[in-house]
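Worked problem 6 (solution included).
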Amino acid sequence: MKDHHEGYIDWGIYERNQKQLAINAYGQRDGTKSGRGGRSLLIGLMTCGQCGHRLRVAYRGRYPYPVYQWIGRTALGLPRCMCFGGQRVDAAIACELMRVVQPIAIQAALVAERTHMESQREQQRILELELQQARYEASLAERRYATCDPDNRLIAAQLEKNWETSLRRVGEYEARLEDIKLSNSATPNPDFTGLAEDLDSAWSSSSVTMRTRQQLVRALINDITVNIDEADCEIVLTIHWKGGRHSTLRLRKPQSGEHECVTSDDALAIIESMASRWSDEHIAATLNRMGLPTAQGKTWTAKRVGSIRRVRGIHAYKSAEKDGEWLTLTEAAKASNVTAHRIRSLIAAGILPAQQVVPGAPYQINALDLRDPHVATAMRRKGRPCQSPPESQIPMFTDT
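Solution. The predicted structure is:
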């Protein structure tokens, strides 16, 4: 009761404490939305469309990822309202936020640029007025000194001193005005529009914390109502923006066991094409050479390639079934009794045919091509480039 009796604290401190208590009331139905960090972007903002309770966040997995859920009805023996992964929802809300804010940001950038230019012009205009006033005061001091009686030395000295002070002020204002004009002409106008266009990059920057992103979302969004469309297996998000506008997003609901950590299609295609002729070690080396990481962003090993093959049902390479028709570069060099460098040189010169499943994969050489007379002649040639001389060319030196 205000002013009922003298309290330990005044009324201002009491109101400030009540406001802080309301801010700290996280998780309440009408309490302030949470925005204190963590791995989930929408913690405290999402409301169940069936029961009206606010969804809570749980973290699962070896590398914990957020899951939005409400399981309050399970205590009453009822099925839970909903439970779904949060990474896909967070990414969709972030994209929608960027899409909505982008025009506003560009417009705000143009307004900021115009305000900046007007501020510079206003400063220059104020300095010009001050210079005009200083020149008037200097002219007035000169006229007073000119009309003074020379015999009155005390008054003449004071008027002369005032005149000199006025002239110094004129010089100072002229110098400041000249500096402003030079700085405005030398300094290019800031490109605020470019900052607005880089809004997406600023959002994705590693220097921006999750707490900052949460606070930005809460500055633009009041609440998000979530419903599950079981028929289409979709998550329906109704976003309530600040200012009273609403928008709806529909996202495909991940199936049980589905996650975002999936091997790329390019890597799978290479594994399928090479598995029939190459071992897991060769496939792993090829994938690493091509710069294709695993689903977790790691380098490939024979064990990881084998694991992917077993999951995808890709048959493995069996050395016992090798019929000798196709040889590797090392096997071809051993069969021809030459070095691997010689075989590689013949392939580069176009003398020895070779195949690659994909660029960067190991070479495959047909055993019949090694018995070709041109290839055999090029292999025996020593001390010369691995090139077949034209038939019409007369050799300068014999092989003997």
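Discussion: The chain has a mean pLDDT of 79.
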